[in-house]
Amino acid sequence: MPPMLPTTRPSPVTRILAAANAVILGKSTQTRLALCCLLAKGHLLIEDLPGVGKTTLAHTLARVLGFKFSRIQFTSDMLPADILGVSIFDRESSHFQFLPGPVFSQVLLADEINRATPKTQCALLEAMEEGQVTTEGETRPLPEPFFVIATQNPSTQIGTFPLPESQLDRFLLRIELGYPDHDAERALLESGGRREQLPTLATCLGPGDFAAMQKEVAAVYSSPALLDYLQSLVEATRQDVRLVHGLSPRAALSLLAVARAWAFSDGRQMVLPEDVQAVLPAVARHRLRLVSGGYAGNEDIAALIRSLPLA
Question: How many degrees, rounded to 5, is the angle at CA 128 between CA 146 and CA 221?
Fold first, then answer.
């Protein structure tokens, strides 16, 4: 029998967020969103200016969760084989031997992904959607869990290629870090930065703990009334004349999954409308393109939420 009222219990993610926030200063909301993305079995896109901590956040999450980590620096001359791997001829065995690329890890940091051409960017499509890669006619499974954390520079910067919409839609969330506040930046200046702490970070989970947490997230209760509210938000995007198109059914499922993770991170076993509102901008902005050009911003999402007041 599902619970009729929200219940509060200690959240198992508290120590993870505490460890991450000790490195990523003043960005607790973004860090929580990033963790919720992984708990919801999604991939994360971090877009912002160089030097605000995008790469450090990816390193930190992989470290505290105890995942195998690899990093690719995307460049304009990179080829798909640089990501997926390549077969070489072994003279001793007279056979081709496959050398796995960096995609064969649990957390893949795709650094500055939009500095590679669309052909190279699309090499990740199968990996992100199916958890496998197909090369030279053979399909190879990726480790479990498998997450892509990609960083992206603003499209106005020189040498960037826009991500295809099919690639953008593979990312469950898109977040921005922004400049640190005064106190966080002062702490950075006084300590000389926090990246040197990464090697000393301890893993916060034991084997199998993260998979168990993901199962708990998937079991967080969403009432019929909550689903009505979520559907109303999704349908409103499809009827908004300012948008080229609304949110897809996959986006609606993504919104519910992240809302469950957000509630779980707050120690609750039931999704509230406030959970949906909290994660909606990160789920929707990179999926909603404006007729006037560009993608929806925070104010557009805020207006959408205001247009559907809670009873």
Answer: 70
Gap between the Cα atoms of 213 and 218, Å rounded = 9
Q: Using alpha carbons, list the distances in angstroms from residue 40 to 36, 37, 234, 274, 283.
A: 6, 5, 19, 17, 12
Cα separation, 272 vs 6, in Å, equals 8
Helix (H) or strand (E) holding 25: none
Q: Going residue by residue through the chain, which has 311 residues, state the pLDDT in tens, using 9 for 90 and above.
A: 455 555 554 457 888 999 898 888 889 999 999 999 999 999 999 988 877 888 888 889 988 998 988 999 999 899 999 999 888 877 877 788 888 899 999 999 999 998 888 888 888 888 999 999 988 788 999 998 999 999 888 777 777 888 878 888 889 999 998 888 898 889 888 887 777 777 778 888 877 889 999 999 999 999 999 999 999 999 999 999 999 999 999 999 999 999 999 999 999 999 999 999 999 999 999 999 999 988 898 999 999 999 988 76
- Cut 0.85: pTM above it: yes
Contacts of 262 (CB under 8 A, 6+ apart): 32, 33, 36, 275, 278, 279
- Six-digit token string for 9: 């219990």
User: CA-to-CA distance for 126 and 56, rounded, in angstroms?
Assistant: 26
